[in-house]
Amino acid sequence: MTAPLIRPAADAPLSRRVPDLGALELLLAVARLGSLGRAAREVGITQPAASSRIRAMERQLGVALVDRSPRGSLLTDAGVLVTGWARPLIEAAATFDAGAQALRDRRDSRLRVAASMTIAEYLLPGWLVALRATLRDTAVSLHAGNSAVVAQRLLAHEADLGFVEGLATPEGLDSAVVGHDRLLVVVAPGHPWTRRSAPVGPAELAGAPLILREPGSGTREVLDAGLAAYGGLAEPLLELASTTALKAAAVSGAGPCVLSELALGEELASRRLVRVAVEGVRLRRDLRAVWPAGTRPAGPARELLSLTRRETS
Description:
This protein has three domains: 14-85, Orthogonal Bundle (Arc Repressor Mutant, subunit A); 87-162 and 294-312, D-Maltodextrin-Binding Protein, domain 2; 180-286, 3-Layer(aba) Sandwich (D-Maltodextrin-Binding Protein, domain 2), CATH 3.40.190.290. Helix 10 links the parallel strand 7 (211-213) and strand 8 (238-240). The radius of gyration is 21 Å and the shape is flat. By secondary structure, it is of the alpha/beta class. The strands form three sheets. Strands 3, 4, 5, 6, 9, 10 and 11 form a seven-stranded mixed sheet that branches. A two-stranded antiparallel sheet has the order 1-2. Helix 3 (36-43) packs across helix 4 (47-61) and helix 7 (124-134) packs across helix 13 (300-312). Helices cover 44% and strands 20% of the residues. The protein has helices at 14-17, 21-33, 36-43, 47-61, 77-105, 117-122, 124-134, 147-155, 202-207, 218-227, 243-251, 265-269, 300-312; strands at residues 66-69, 72-75, 110-115, 139-144, 161-166, 173-187, 211-213, 238-240, 257-260, 274-276, 284-292.
């Protein structure tokens, strides 16, 4: 008989309520590989140890995370949500490790990066890990915020290089396109928009209460511009500054949300969210590296800019 899950006390220290990074890495491996055994081999532990670690994490969180069967291991609904929350933690830990190692090696070289949320969450961790392979002595700090905040930090000389997602280069900055992205409109299964045969048009999208990023974000800028001719966006259903929070609200069935395709791979693959066809609205955008106008990135900033162009070409 399976032991009942015990909900951790809400007043327990955070370290006793949040799983350790090793357990979260294992859960992400299970989600990606669909097998507890293969996940165990990938992280370098035995399958019994992996099973024990998953059970301990389930007891710690008070929810079941993995359904085990002879055909493999599948995440429960709660497990899918937890992996979505775990991924930015693991990516942040990789960034932290790269920065901490650089600090240990030598402290007289630094790179200050400011990036809007989608790039900070889904692209920069890989770029910074790759950068560390060539610049081991460079200490990297990353500040994540919306595109307006990135521009402010660069103009205040609080960052050496920035990355934004929008329709144009912010005022006072020069830029180089390092990639492309598109926004998707997604809803939970069962939403009326999943049963329609015709795409959602711009007027209908403009009039619908949506779950949106805050003003100043690149996502909001693209939507505002695309729907300006149709009266602009209706009053948002929810306005949130976190990609994870937006996805969780949409998964719960609160309403349609608009997010970068980069952020939605797992939710679309697992059918926890469904893409809605939209026509007549420009939802593509450039991903730009930015720096103060009249200057050129130098040193580690130049190396990172060069790397991003190679990675996205």
